[in-house]
UniProtKB/TrEMBL annotation:
Chain ranges of the ABC transporter domain: 4-234
Annotated InterPro entries: AAA+_ATPase, ABC_transporter-like_ATP-bd, ABC_transporter-like_CS, ABC_transpr_MalK-like, ABC_transpr_MalK/UgpC-like, Mo/tungstate-bd_C_term_dom, NA-bd_OB-fold, P-loop_NTPase
One of the GO biological process terms: carbohydrate transport
Protein name as it appears in the record: Carbohydrate ABC transporter ATP-binding protein, CUT1 family
Length: 373
């Protein structure tokens, strides 16, 4: 078994708490993506699992074994870094074989494993080249190959694609997904890139200031973010927030804020209702969250005024991206980002009627910023 288990893991560098009581179970064969802003502790967490840093408190398990005191080379993990760290004077073949030779693996076995990995990664014709004679993408594939030939229990990858240009990144991302499907090796993958996180991860773990914020499938993180931080971090452009109150008026649960006043429906009304006392008059300060893709825009009639179900907004900045257009608007006190159909041909200054998709609204407590769900 190659599950990885972190139990209350803390890492301090002097007074800096880089990782703060993180507990996390990564299943055998799972692809877990670690995301978070710069300095949140992603690389440190990976280095703790690899054994390149010592844990200050807590336990790291690989399989059934606590590995806190096991040196990196005996943990049976392979790490892939963003700077490929290839040996420049060695051929691709020798770069891939090096780790196995150090481990005194028999020659035939090394040859078999290197050729198999080269085949998997499309490197067979490049085995005699040196790193200087390779493109960035090919070098990164050699770095992956070096990890694969070891057939480790766990892959640890620290932004492995971040030195590649946009097109190669996309290509390598697909290759990584295919590789994981084929090998099924437990993988922990650090990235800044949302698309990588959403497309590669069986689950995503979001870190902030060394603390775990939420661990869930990409769909769940997107649809049910645990707090304002996760809601803003996952999704591009980020979720919009409208500050306001929820209150019960004539038995209805309503939101009012940023020029919007609307009745909440379905699950959201139940959630909001549950945190209000049963009588009229009680209110709670909240942030209403809505993603740019869950706001529907149409041209506003000349005399349009905000209504029960819509906002009237003015387009400030228009960003056409081809398949979709993002429009930055002001609507009363609120500034919002809206995804619109490019065929609407919105121009700065245009007035838009915006309808929020009632099925896809989020409510967060204004003070704690935690989801009310
Ligand atoms: P980035 O995305 O920028 O690579 P990260 O999320 O990987 O950031 P870490 O490199 O894990 O962040 O750093 C977490 C915190 O620990 C930071 O505040 C960093 O300054 C600090 N830190 C990391 N390594 C050391 C070290 N060797 N000595 C002291 N502080 C460190």
């Amino acid at each position: 078994m190659a599950e990885v288990r972190l139990v209350d893991v803390t890492k301090r560098f002097g007074s800096t708490v880089a990782v703060d009581r993180v507990s996390l179970d990564i299943a055998d064969g799972e692809f877990l993506v670690l995301v978070g802003p710069s300095g949140c502790g992603k690389s440190t967490l990976l280095r703790l699992i690899a054994g390149l840093e010592d844990v200050t408190e807590g336990q790291v398990y690989i399989g059934d074994r606590v590995v806190n005191d096991v040196p990196p080379k005996d943990r049976d993990v392979a790490m892939v870094f963003q700077n490929y760290a290839l040996y420049p004077h060695m051929t691709v073949y020798d770069n891939m074989a090096f780790g196995l030779r150090m481990r005194k693996v028999p020659r035939d076995e090394i040859d078999r494993r290197v050729r198999q990995a080269a085949e998997t990664l499309g490197l067979t014709n490049l085995l005699k080249r040196r790193p200087a004679q390779l493109s960035g993408g090919q070098r990164q594939r050699v770095a992956l190959g070096r990890a694969i030939v070891r057939d480790p229990k766990v892959f640890l990858m620290d932004e492995p694609l971040s030195n590649l240009d946009a097109q190669l990144r996309v290509q390598m991302r697909t290759e990584l997904a295919r590789l994981h499907q084929r090998l099924g090796t437990t993988t922990i993958y650090v990235t800044h890139d949302q698309v990588e996180a959403m497309t590669l991860g069986d689950r995503i773990a979001v870190l902030r200031d060394g603390k775990l914020q939420q661990v869930a499938t990409p769909q769940d993180i997107y649809a049910r973010p645990a707090n304002v931080f996760v809601a803003s971090f996952i999704g591009s452009p980020p979720m919009n927030f409208i500050r306001g109150v929820v209150e019960r008026i004539d038995g209805e649960v309503r939101f009012a804020g940023g020029g919007l006043s609307c009745r909440l429906k379905g699950e959201l009304a139940e959630t909001a209702g549950a945190c209000l006392s049963s009588g009229d008059g009680h209110r709670r300060e909240v942030l209403l969250g809505v993603r740019p893709e869950h706001i529907h825009a149409r041209p506003a009639e000349g005399s349009a005024v905000p209504g029960e179900t819509h906002l009237v907004a003015t387009a400030e900045v228009v960003e056409p991206l081809g398949a979709e257009t993002f429009v930055y608007v002001t609507a009363g006190a609120a500034s919002l980002t809206v995804r619109v159909d490019p065929r609407l041909a919105v121009r700065p200054g245009d007035r838009l009627a915006l309808t929020l998709d009632a099925e896809h609204l989020h409510l967060f407590d204004a003070a704690t910023e935690q989801s009310l769900r």
